[in-house]
Amino acid sequence: MQTLFVRSAVALTTATLCLAAQAETFQRVNIAFVPTVGDTPVGCTSVLRGLGVTGVDAKLQDLRFYVSNVKLTTTEGVEVAVTLDANDAQLTSGSDTVALIDLENAKGLCAGDASRHAVITGKVPKGTYNKLAFTLGVPESLNHTDTATAPAPLDNTDMGWSWQVGRKHIKIEVNPKNATTGEFTQGIKKYDSTTGLPTSTYNDSFYFHLGNTGCEVDTSSANGYTCSSDNTLPLHFHGFDYKTQRVAVDLKALFAKTNLTREWGGPPGCMSGATDPECKKMWSVIGSRFVAQTAADGTVTYISKHNLDHAFFHGETVFRAIAK
To answer: Which InterPro entries match (predicted)?
Structure first.
């Protein structure tokens, strides 16, 4: 019995030392996100002042997006992947990680549910870090799965693009104010795309839904699909200190070139359609453009081209670092 007790004590001591060594080797990371209008934090009950080219007031209806493969870079220039905590909003699968950032809480006009996830949590090796990098959107290795059977956070049906074609990488929706009634309904007047004349109908919400497009079944692909346009967006932030800074999602910058009071055709707002008038303007804000490619049979396919030199990808416009 004494020998067994001694062995148990030794094993416990060894395990404790291993945990202590691990704690000394790694440090906790918290990367926070906040919706803003300019530098002013906002939420579901806020009035979003002065959006779009007309400076209209609006209210938030939804603000969710996926973030994948978060990395930090040390002051010595070593890039390190953040090991995510396992929870319902964060997933590690193989070499890829993904987190759902949920900045709406079902109050006011906001859709979804009351649960929020505004902070990515995890760990990195001990060190001093001054650069943040991540990709907006779901990696292709995880994108084309059924929300009914996928693990969290890929099981969120609100973020489903369509069965097997993937996810909405970003889902941002706002309701502009109706100039006549003062309400945040029926504030977007619809225009005929051919004649340019106003119709008698209105939309409540402007949708910005970003997802991959031109997706087709491809049995030779490990994911079962290939997409002509991969609309995941790689961002990086120089001089980023996660202890004192957070990432703003600036709605004023996002809609800077958009008239939120008029709809010129296609789905409401911009749902990643290359021929949608609203998407053409929003693509320029996210440092991208649509390029038409004509096949031998005359079929035209539109490809998203991303200019990685654009300020958007350097974390200087819509997504940017601000103080906590």
So the answer is: MbnP-like, MbnP-like_dom
- Residue 82 CA to residue 36 CA, distance in Å, equals 25
- For residues 99 and 120, the answer to whether their CB atoms sit within 8 Å is yes
The whole-model pTM stands at 0.91
CA of residue 143 relative to chain centroid, distance? 14
pLDDT band at 220 (very low <50, low <70, confident <90, very high): confident
pLDDT tens-digit readout, 253-275: 999 999 999 999 888 999 999 99
256 belongs to a structural domain? yes
CA nearest neighbour of 173 among 210, 135, 228, 131:
210
Residue 142, phi then psi, degrees to nearest 5:
-120, -5
* Tally of domains in the chain: 1
- Distances, alpha carbon 152 to alpha carbons 20, 90, 97, 116, 158, in Å: 31, 7, 12, 14, 13
Q: Is residue 159 part of a domain?
A: yes
- Identify the pLDDT of residue 211: 95
Nearest CA-CA partner of 236 in 307, 316, 168, 170: 316
CA distances from 31 to 54, 63, 120, 285 (A): 33, 17, 5, 24
Q: Please give the residue range of the domain that contains residue 141.
A: 28-273+314-323
